[in-house]
Design goal:
Strand content: under 5%
Number of domains: 1
CATH topology: Fumarate Reductase Cytochrome B subunit
Helix content: 55-70%
CATH class: Mainly Alpha
Order of helices and strands: HHEEHHHHHEE
Bound molecules: protoporphyrin IX containing FE
Low-confidence stretches: none
Length: 225
Amino acid sequence: MSHPAHYREAHPFIFVMTHWINLIAMVALAFSGFYIHYPFFAGFMGVARGMHFFFMYVLLINLAVRIIAAFFVKSATRLGSREVDTDIKNWLPQKLNRHQLIPWIKYYIFLKKDHPIGAKYGVLQKIAYIATVPLTLAAAYTGFAIYAPVMDWAFFTAGTDAVGGPMNMRIIHYYLMWAFILFTAIHAYLANVEGFSPSRLIFAWKEEEGLQFDAEGKIVGGTEH
Ligand code: HEM
Ligand code: HEM
């Protein structure tokens, strides 16, 4: 069973944009970063480094925009309703998430066919998405710590000394790439496992067809997929 969350209020257009920009920046950084680590064809190092140094700012500015927008943009805060509230509420503990951790885990490990319906994001989904913030900041910190123009700043040398030198910092930065790749693989799988409506919404801003809402904005009918 799918949950009827694939209407525009769930992901206002600005979040469709931030998701796209984040995805493009991630692909560009992983590709150029992998090339810097392992130049698997010749003559591209200048471009790869230039690409990396450009998209690292795109990634961080986009993250800042997404976080600031959470305090100003309204989005649906529970499944099955067009009612909106400030988006940041989706990222804090919500009453609608309570007592749902165990059922969600059972669903993910195939002990249960259906998952709970409550807040816009499930318990583990919320935790995983929030975790992308410190993960991105860790990539930024380890990246700037090996970036010549700023690597001498005390803020970065403190970390570089703590991990035993810039070569170790570089290796940590490299492994963070794999953390992102792993997150993205699991995320893309789970996002599509019940059908493509969530992706149609987050990428094309297309609503699930045939949804019917009552005067208060609650879903009263429509297709499951
Ligand atoms: C704000 C974020 C980031 C900053 C400031 C940053 C910065 C850097 C810098 C300065 C280098 C060294 C390049 C050189 O000297 O030629 C580098 C290498 C690299 N970056 Fe990033 N980066 C960031 C995000 C990312 C992300 C998100 C990924 C992967 C998804 C990534 C993957 C890599 C890889 C694999 C390398 C090569 C490391 C090695 O030589 O083993 N970076 N990055
Ligand atoms: C293959 C590429 C990807 C696909 C198919 C995909 C799919 C999706 C879908 C369908 C949603 C909406 C989920 C829902 O409504 O329940 C979503 C949201 C999200 N995705 Fe992705 N995604 C991809 C890449 C990424 C990457 C690379 C990242 C970060 C590293 C990411 C982080 C997020 C976050 C943080 C959200 C919440 C969005 C918000 O509220 O602003 N995604 N994604």
